[in-house]
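Thread title: Can someone regenerate the structure for this chain?

I was given the following input by a collaborator and told the matching structure tokens would be attached. They weren't. Posting the sequence so someone can regenerate them.
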Amino acid sequence: MRASIAVLPGDGIGPEVTAEATRALRAVAARFGHELELVEAPFGGAAIDACGDPLPASTLEACVRADAVLLGAIGGPKWSAVDAPVRPESGLLRLRRELGVYANLRPVRVHPALRDASTLKPEILAGVDLIFVRELTGGIYFGEKRRSGDRAVDVCEYSVGEVERVARVAGRLASTRRHRVTSIDKANVLETSRLWREVTERIMRQEFADVRLEHLLVDAAAMHLLARPYDFDVLLTENLFGDILSDEAAMLAGSLGLLPSASLGDARRGLYEPIHGSAPDIAGRGIANPYGAILSAALLLRHSLGLEREAAALETAVSRAIESGARTADIAFKGLAARPTREIGDAVIARLGRA
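Best answer:
Regenerated them for you:
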């Protein structure tokens, strides 16, 4: 297979973790006989510094031409001043919209070897395997924003069509898993949540009769994610709630650095990135956890390139590397020495050959 991948390293630890993900992709291509063209482009704060725009026209063009987009991380104190004329995050929101990726998949699995990395009791974490489906291009992040005097306004808005399409993604995904969808809202307070609940009920009833739907208020969901995580299968959320809850759920796995994500639309091209931020406090030190970025590359192989065997091989290699003790500082415990970012990539690639 031949495919083109746009690579956006971004800011902070983004270039470091992305380097290991691209090394893993090249190793997969070599093992399975594929040709992957990796095209790097500036994005985020780095692009602001270079040309004043977090999403330059040339970068957007490279992403639109590619079969998939791999992103590192963006942002940092340098670009986050209250009066900053442009922020890296505005480029990310625009990229999602331009690519038409409206469903963000965030899988959360607890690796048996990492149960002690979580602050929760090991018995609560046994068998946890859930996935968030977060609506990505609507809600308060994309609503009207204005500020006047001592008042500020952010508008949260959803249409029936926006809810329908992301609910279908959740329904299709649940049909391949444990046939359960938990839709998370704040319907006791928000009109957008009442619309969300009504539309989700209709879609599941009419199109996914084999899927059991439950509704959960977002505050209750935040509690139950830590009290009974095994009970969840597919969690369907609007944009803001999904952003917050999926970061909370990362603590089930033990670290934000472990978790990947895939942003998908109606086309096969997707946007893939670890869920962590740019972590400027550790940038350039070679200690960042690249597992989330490498697992994002596995999702890229699966969802955009249709290479299930290759994706599974890379995920198995990651699992075996973790079992072998290849851990960065955020997940090293019980006397294990923390390993640098590059050595984690080496450990995964070494095990890819026998995955």
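The chain has two domains: 1-110+254-355, 119-253.
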